[in-house]
Design a protein that fits this description.
The complex is a heterodimer of chains A (about 150) and B (about 400). Chain A contains two helices and seven strands; from the N terminus they run E-E-H-E-E-E-E-H-E. Chain A has about 150 residues and is an alpha/beta fold. Chain A has one domain (about 10-115): 2-Layer Sandwich (Beta Polymerase, domain 2). A five-stranded mixed beta sheet of chain A has the order 1-2-5-4-3. Chain A has a two-stranded parallel sheet with strand order 6-7. In chain A, strand 6 (about 90), helix 2 and strand 7 form a beta-alpha-beta unit. The longest helix of chain A is centred in the C-terminal third of the chain and has 12 residues, at about 100-110. Chain A is globular. The termini of chain A are far apart. Chain B is mainly alpha-helical. Chain B has two domains: about 1-60, no CATH class; about 75-385 and about 395-410, Orthogonal Bundle (Cytochrome-c3 Hydrogenase, chain B), CATH 1.10.645.10. In chain B, about 50% of the residues lie in helices and about 10% in strands. Chain B contains 18 helices and eight strands. In chain B, a hairpin with a 2-residue loop joins strand 4 (about 175) and strand 5 (about 180). The two termini of chain B are about 25 Å apart. The chains are: A alpha/beta (about 150), B mainly alpha (about 400).
Chain lengths: ~150, ~400
């Protein structure tokens, strides 16, 4: 299902593949874009927030938002690229309160900071865990056990 | 990292120091710990109580986190199927299906009708499986203990059918990329037919057992209300939304795997309480039985795997006699097939809600990133709102009506 073109200052590029629309957005204006998409374009449901680590190429992290509109019966993907050293982006909890746990998970697994998040603590790993497991330079077996051929 | 932890501990300690006064009752912090018979898995909830009333409930998840998403990046595309079974361990085939559909979207291969119908039938059987476990354990938590035995008696039949098809009772991995794993076994129509002809009367039996019990209706009606706006904003999907009146069912709104050819209704209710969710799931069981009957009667003939020799393993006999089949088999098993670079998101209606896989491929034989958008993670996020202001005894009923599974939440 292809959507009619969405216009907003934060959108850098629009891609379509496999019947899905992806917007590449500027991370500095992401909350503005999310608010526009929720209220004007009726994407009231946030399905998921996740991230992809493209180590070693830059921009290293890509934060991906999956949106869903019930009345338009349409889905949308919004991606922003973040640099590798100290990645930070504005939290989307101001727009959807459901972004809370998803951003905590992205912080836990990738180390991406979310500004103005109400409770940015680790969610899946123990609170005092070291390192960010889903990054590509984090070994599969972790650091705690001494596997010889690492 | 340590600093964030210390700040977190400091904020918890601060909330516990509420002094008692004649007008404000003292709050008690109660830990509904990860080991609890009614939390449906290893879920820890930190409750703050004023007498019997819950003031705040803070769930703490991650006890079942096994790093499945990272593990998926280390395995070949076909090997990941066995990992997906174990994410939502009560409805395994729904997970298999969504993974297979997403990868087939990236690969752009056509699935033959027989494989699609077999997938629908098996997914609906696993929906029945999941709802039966839900009904049995939910009723058990509230106190109606015999329901557990009734539901598991039916579940035993379903597990026998799954074993007949795939050799495994639970972690079947029956739905593979390109179709299904094996041809349907001889005599499957009799076994499935016998089960599905007897099933609707069993659902009537459950309804009769519970609805005519005044304790059940008193404990479930009017309990566990959460507003529709809160649910939609916080990422809740599935029967909880349908019990609030919105007919959001992905099998109807975004049909996949030939669901558009089946005739079934979307169960909705308007009251938005525990009783409404129970009625919605009961109705879903009846509709699933209808779908399985239609699949049984109208199952098309033909191949059960796609015609894509570079993806799908060749038949065993062909592999033993033909050279090309042997080479394909060798390459697929040792190196794995390659999926063209790209990304796709596909979602499916699991018994708990919307399950979606976001898969990024970089053109090699292993996935680059697999993100599982699981329904229980989104549903559990609404737990503080659901449990706020209700009695402790009602919280068990409300928790159960949410139907989350910790494997789904933590992955």
């Amino acid at each position: 299902m292809s959507l009619p073109k969405i216009n907003h200052a934060a959108i850098l590029e629009t891609k379509e593949a496999f019947g899905e629309t992806t917007l590449i957005a500027d991370p500095a204006q992401i909350v503005d874009l999310c608010r526009y998409l929720k209220h004007e374009e009726k994407f009231i449901r946030l399905s998921a927030i996740t991230a992809v680590d493209w180590y070693p190429s830059e921009p290293r992290f890509e934060v991906v938002y999956h949106l869903h509109s019930i009345e338009r019966n349409a889905r949308l993907r919004v991606k922003c690229g973040l640099g590798g050293t100290n990645p930070e982006i504005e939290s989307a909890t101001a727009v959807w309160s459901g972004a809370n746990w998803y951003e905590r998970e992205v912080f836990d697994m990738f180390g991406i900071g979310f500004r103005n998040h109400p409770n940015l603590v680790r969610i899946l790993n123990p609170t005092d865990w070291d390192g960010f497991p889903l990054r590509k330079d984090y070994p599969v077996h972790g650091y705690k056990y001494g596997y010889s051929n690492e | 990292m340590k600093k964030i932890f210390e700040e977190h501990v400091a904020t918890i300690a601060a909330t516990q120091e509420t002094p008692a006064s004649p007008s404000a009752p003292r709050r008690m912090t109660l830990n509904m710990g990860p080991q609890h018979p009614s939390t449906h898995g290893v879920l820890r909830i930190v409750l703050e109580l004023e007498g019997e009333m819950i003031v705040s409930a803070e769930p703490d998840i991650g006890f079942l986190h096994t790093g499945i998403e990272k593990e998926c990046e280390q395995k070949t595309w076909q090997q990941v199927v066995t990992l997906t079974d174990r994410v939502d361990y009560l409805s395994n085939l729904a997970n298999n299906l969504v993974y297979a559909l997403t990868v087939e979207k990236l690969l752009q291969i056509e699935i033959p009708p027989r494989a699609q119908w077999l997938r629908v039938m098996m997914t609906e059987l696993s929906r029945l499986n999941s709802h039966l476990v839900w009904l049995g354990t939910h009723a058990l938590d509230i106190g109606a203990m015999s329901m557990f035995f009734y539901c598991f008696r039916e579940r035993e039949d379903i597990l026998r059918i799954l074993e007949m098809f795939s050799g495994q009772r639970m972690m079947t991995s029956y739905i593979r990329i390109g179709g299904v794993a094996l041809e349907a076994p001889r005599g499957w129509q009799q076994v499935v037919g016998k089960f599905i002809r007897a099933f609707p009367s069993k659902v009537d039996e459950y309804e009769d057992l519970l609805d005519s019990n005044p304790i059940w209706t008193r404990r479930t009606k009017g309990v566990g209300f959460i507003s529709l706006e809160d649910m939609l904003d916080q990422g809740v999907t599935g029967p909880m939304i349908r019990a609030a009146g919105v007919p959001m069912d992905l099998r109807k709104t975004e049909p996949y795997s030939s669901y558009e050819k089946f005739d079934f209704k979307v169960a909705t209710h308007t009251e938005n309480d525990v009783y409404a969710r129970y009625r919605v799931r009961l109705e879903e069981m009846r509709q699933s039985a209808r779908i399985i009957t239609q699949a049984l009667e109208g199952m098309p003939e033909g191949p059960w795997q796609a015609d894509a020799p570079h993806v799908v393993l060749p038949e065993r006999e062909k592999m033993k006699t033909q050279m090309e089949a042997l080479i394909y088999h060798f390459k697929i098993v040792t190196e794995g097939f390659r999926v063209p670079a790209g990304e796709a998101y596909q979602c499916v209606e699991s018994p708990r809600g919307e399950i979606g896989y976001y898969i990024v491929s970089d053109g090699t034989s292993k996935p680059y990133r697999v993100h599982m958008r699981t329904p229980s993670f989104g549903n559990l996020q609404a737990l503080p709102t659901l449990l706020k202001g209700i009695l402790l005894a009602d919280s068990i009923a409300a928790l159960g009506s949410m139907d989350f599974v910790l494997g789904d939440t933590d992955r």
